[in-house]
Amino acid sequence: MSVYTSVSMAQLAAWLRTYAVGVPVALDPIAKGIENSNFFLTTTQGRYVLTLFERLPAEELPFYLNLMSHLAQHGIPCPAPIADRSGRFLSALNGKPAAVVTRLPGASVEAPTVAHCAALGDLLARMHLAGQSYAGGLENPRGPKWWRVAAREVRPFLNDAQAALLDEELRFQSLYRFPDLPRGPVHADLFRDNALFDDDRLSGVIDFYFAGIDCLLFDCAVCANDWCLIDTAHDLRFDEAKIEALLAAYARVRHFTALERGAWPVLLRAAALRFWLSRLRDLHLPRSGALVHAHDPEHFEAILRLRADDAASAWLIA
């Protein structure tokens, strides 16, 4: 992600003395995303990822790190936080809360195939089942309450057509809360760049720092809106084979309920709204950083318009 707080090798070496991971050899900034300062860390004992948390509330950080630890212990290929010699996952580095996690093999895919989508569906379902025994509680921090706040912040930057779309979608979403849908910890940001493949094997899911408790189906909707398109850059309609592969693989591990089948079109729109709003905020209300990467909000505006117009999308869950 973007780098807002730099770390010198001397600072790093002193900080790592409280960890049993060896002596630092290299620290390379990761110039992707917008939330934290992330680095690839190489030591004499292995490869890790170092994260300095820039604006996440301190009280939320244990939820994310303990969730990752829980999932890793239950066989989910995700980064495992490294505890220091006192047993803590978090400690201060250069004035910011910081953590070290294991670095997973593989690389993200730009153009997912049907096989990639099937692998993702299988892992997502296994991750949701593993999360059911996680005791932590944190409502999705980018859920409906946040939508309303973000909408007020970005409204001055919208034209009349965009403002009308936003108002109508907020009105539509206010009609649905789905208290009876299966809930639990969700990743909530499982885009293509947050999954790693190693020789076509899904080797890891990363970046859990938007996770929270929500409808499990919301995670499926986030994935579908990013992974299952005909062309991720130009044709944002669903590729039927990809989305069938994603959902069928998921359902083989965790069956969808009748209520989830009915809620599917609404959750697809909710997922598109959430990322349209976040990209609008990142574009129009950016924070300064040494390396900054902002996504184009028009992408999810277009997806939201498509999902709102697609009355036939309910067929996607059988």
Question: Can you offer a commentary on this structure?
Answer:
The chain is globular. The strands form three sheets. A five-stranded antiparallel sheet has the order 1-2-3-5-4, with helices on one face. The longest helix is centred in the C-terminal third of the chain and has 27 residues, at 258-284. The relative contact order is 0.14. Strand 1 and strand 2 form a beta hairpin. The protein folds into two domains: 9-102, Phosphorylase Kinase, domain 1; 114-316, Aminoglycoside 3'-phosphotransferase, Chain: A, domain 2 (Alpha-Beta Complex), CATH 3.90.1200. With 318 residues, the protein is an alpha+beta fold. The chain has nine helices and nine strands. It is 41% helix and 14% strand.
CATH superfamily of the largest domain: Aminoglycoside phosphotransferase (APH), C-terminal lobe
- Tally of domains: 2
The multimeric state of the shown protein is single chain
- Major sheet summary line: 5 strands, antiparallel
- Write down the CATH class of the largest domain: Alpha Beta
**Helix and strand composition category:** alpha+beta
Radius of gyration: 20 Å
CATH architecture of the largest domain: Alpha-Beta Complex
In spatial order, strands of the major sheet run: 1-2-3-5-4
| CATH fold-level topology of the largest domain | Aminoglycoside 3'-phosphotransferase, Chain: A, domain 2
Query: Mean of residue pLDDT?
Result: 93
